[in-house]
Write a structure and sequence with these properties.
41% of the residues are buried. The radius of gyration is 20 Å and the shape is globular. The chain has 15 helices and three strands. It is mainly alpha-helical. The longest helix has 19 residues, at 174-192. It has two domains: 3-210, no CATH class; 217-276, Alpha-Beta Plaits, CATH 3.30.70. The protein has helices at 3-14, 18-23, 52-61, 65-82, 85-90, 92-101, 112-115, 120-135, 144-149, 151-164, 174-192, 196-200, 203-210, 231-235, 256-260, and strands spanning 217-221, 266-270, 273-276. The protein has a three-stranded antiparallel sheet with strand order 1-2-3.
Length: 289
């Protein structure tokens, strides 16, 4: 199935509580007790389920070990199965960044030094999702990632509520203004850099990145027959060395690289099997390598 179709359907299903957008109130039914495996604000008026990062932070704050274990286990299970395929196919905020990248303006591919900023998301995961909520410091109280760094909350919760109730703007303080600036920066960067928030900041992406090489779903290269034409490399917006590192922690499994493999020597490995796909098939190509 086309990835854009999957991303669109997922975004609509996850945030399909239309009554919430009309009334300006979040859904609080039984589905809110479970989380989606992607970054989506719990307090979005249209959200049926909760954000996994929000559940982890709140469970640490209130000492709910059962919720913490279940949520972390859920993420580790799916990450172990799919890795960052979840980021590339199901995350609404990742989808939004990709749409912004389609705007016809000059693009920038980060060099090796800037790519090292990708380690920042691991620090955000440890500090803002786990450590700061556990310490309970006065100036870092509450779910610190959601409170200080998450632009998704601003986009999906604050802005819809302000659209319905403009008078709330008079009560907006420094924290809201900071989050608004942060969202604006992410939007501007997304126009020129492919998925910047996913690459450098997202702690949920960090969880899946750690499992990318170990996941059951992986990319596989037939190196014996590969001519190193660079076709797969040209298609990768993330600048990953597909030949040497097809299962890089940064790979979101968008599968664009498969379209660039002229000899169909790049495939999807699921468990012990390898399924070869090509998005631009030629009639003279075999079905398997």
């Amino acid at each position: 199935m086309n990835r854009r179709v999957v991303q669109t359907i997922t975004a609509v299903l996850i945030n399909g509580h239309v009554a919430g957008f009309l009334s300006g109130t979040a859904y609080n039914g039984p589905l809110k007790r479970i989380c989606v495996p992607v970054l989506n604000c719990t307090y979005c008026p249209g959200a049926f389920s909760s954000c996994p990062l929000g559940l982890i932070q709140s469970s640490i704050l209130f000492g709910n070990q059962l919720v913490l274990i279940l949520t972390a286990g859920f993420l580790l299970l799916l990450g172990g199965m799919l890795g960052r395929f979840l980021c590339g196919w199901f995350c609404p905020f990742g989808f939004m960044q990709e749409l912004l990248y389609k705007i016809p303006l000059p693009k920038y591919r980060p060099g090796r030094n800037l790519i090292k900023l990708g380690y920042l998301k691991y620090a955000v995961l440890v500090l803002f999702v786990f450590l700061f909520p556990a310490l309970g410091l006065t100036y870092l109280s509450g779910p610190t990632f959601c409170k200080y760094l998450c632009p998704v909350e601003t986009l999906e919760s604050y802005l819809p509520l302000l659209a319905l109730q403009p008078s709330l703007m008079t009560t907006a303080g420094f924290l809201f203004k900071w989050k608004l600036v942060l969202l604006a920066v992410v939007i501007l960067l997304s126009i020129i850099i492919f998925r910047p928030f996913c690459r450098f900041i997202c702690p949920l992406g960090a969880v899946y990145a750690l499992l990318n090489r170990l996941s059951l779903l992986r990319l596989d290269v037939n190196r014996e027959s590969c001519k190193k034409c660079g076709g797969c490399q040209e298609q990768c917006e993330l600048g990953i060395d597909v030949y040497n590192n097809p299962n890089s922690p940064e790979c979101v499994r968008c599968m664009q690289c498969l379209a660039g493999c002229r000899d169909r020597l790049l495939g999807i490995k699921t468990g012990l099997s390898v399924k070869t796909l090509n998005l631009k098939k030629r009639p003279d190509q075999n079905k398997d390598f």
